[in-house]
Write a structure and sequence with these properties.
about 350 residues, alpha+beta, Butyryl-Coa Dehydrogenase, subunit A, domain 1, Butyryl-CoA Dehydrogenase, subunit A, domain 3, 4-stranded mixed β-sheet, 3-stranded antiparallel β-sheet, 11 helices, globular
């Protein structure tokens, strides 16, 4: 399988990277951590085709595939783009206005603990556990993936929620709801399963972006930070750290690209197995590279003036986005045990 990007894919990658470098440069990320301005950026993201990337052209989309979406989401992961971009992309075909950016769409996966963190998603558990919604205070619509399908809840029904004062990731504001409304069923169980599979690959792409960016930050700091009269990049221990980070990044890229290609053409492999592998490998790369980046930066890596800790916090959030990584590990174990 050839994982080299085509000329068009490289142009798409460069266009998104230029957009992110301008719109989500670190100085502005620090500002967004204090007061996310989702509406200011949403139309710009829609104009870049992020939400309608995989919609057919006849439906107002770009008409590309999962391979191109993985390239785009890796760039969004690199720059820590805030907001429920993943959900607005996944639900572009189901919720009117999502693709154009007119409707700000969020989501939850109750079947795997996304809404109530209990893993059951039933009414009894929802009454006993918190319901946390990403960017909930800003949403026009919320899509909930349940066992029987996809349910839509309109924004006014979320008015009873309260903002979480100190979320783990400052760029991922949370809304706490005392109970989750049932909502209107807009798609069946097969559609929900398909969204989970696609979402797994796109979350892995976001994690790939974190692995790439933290490696770049670590290498750049190691080249300029001096100890004992020379750059710390010359120390063997730091070289080993960076080499390990590079290896994890390359493995993650291969796994993500393979999963995206498999979803585009299921005949080349098992999409479920490929998606699980991508989440496991990219998740480990994001977490370990973010931690290693902080270690190379030393004490300053924890400060608000430096970006490394933002990446670690985003990596922790992505670990529990849609189907948690532990569930993907169980899926992969079952595939290896049965040879399927």
């Amino acid at each position: 399988m050839d994982f080299q990007l085509s000329e068009d894919q490289r142009a798409l990658q460069q266009g998104i990277r230029s957009f992110c470098d301008d719109r989500y440069r670190f100085e502005r990320i620090a500002e967004l951590a204090r007061e996310p301005a989702l509406r200011d950026d949403w139309q710009a993201l829609a104009g870049m085709g992020v939400f309608g990337l995989r919609l057919p052209e006849l439906e107002g989309g770009v008409g590309l595939g999962m391979a191109e979406a993985a390239v785009v989401f890796a760039e969004l992961g690199r720059c820590l783009a805030p907001g429920p971009i993943l959900w607005s992309h996944l639900l572009a075909a189901l919720i009117p206005g999502a693709a154009s950016g007119e409707t700000l769409v969020g989501g939850l996966d109750c079947a795997h603990g996304g809404a109530d963190w209990s893993g059951r998603g039933d009414a009894e558990s929802r009454g006993a556990a918190p319901v946390l919604i990403e960017s909930g205070a800003e949403l026009d619509a919320l899509a909930v993936l349940r066992g029987d399908g996809v349910h839509r809840i309109d924004g006014p029904a979320l008015a009873a929620g309260r903002k979480v004062g100190t979320p783990l990731d400052p760029l991922t504001p949370l809304l706490h709801l005392p109970a989750l409304p049932q909502g209107e069923r807009i798609a069946d169980a097969d559609a929900a399963a398909k969204l989970r599979l696609q979402g797994a690959v796109l979350v892995a792409a976001l994690q790939l972006g974190i692995a790439e960016s933290t490696l770049e930050l670590a290498v750049a700091h190691a080249k300029t930070r001096e100890q004992f009269g020379r750059p710390i990049a010359s120390f063997q221990a730091i070289k080993h750290f960076c080499a390990d980070m590079f290896t994890r990044q390359e493995l993650a890229r291969a796994a993500v690209y393979a999963a995206a290609a498999t979803l585009d053409d299921p005949e080349i492999g098992d999409p479920t197995r490929a998606a699980a592998a991508a989440r496991i490998v990219a998740g480990e790369a994001a977490m370990k590279n973010a931690r290693q980046c902080i270690q190379i930066h030393g004490g300053m890596g924890y400060t608000w003036e430096m970006p490394p800790h933002y990446y670690l916090k985003r990596a922790l959030v992505l670990e529990q986005t849609l189907t948690p990584t532990d569930t993907h590990c169980e899926t992969m174990a079952a595939c290896l045990a049965t040879g399927g």
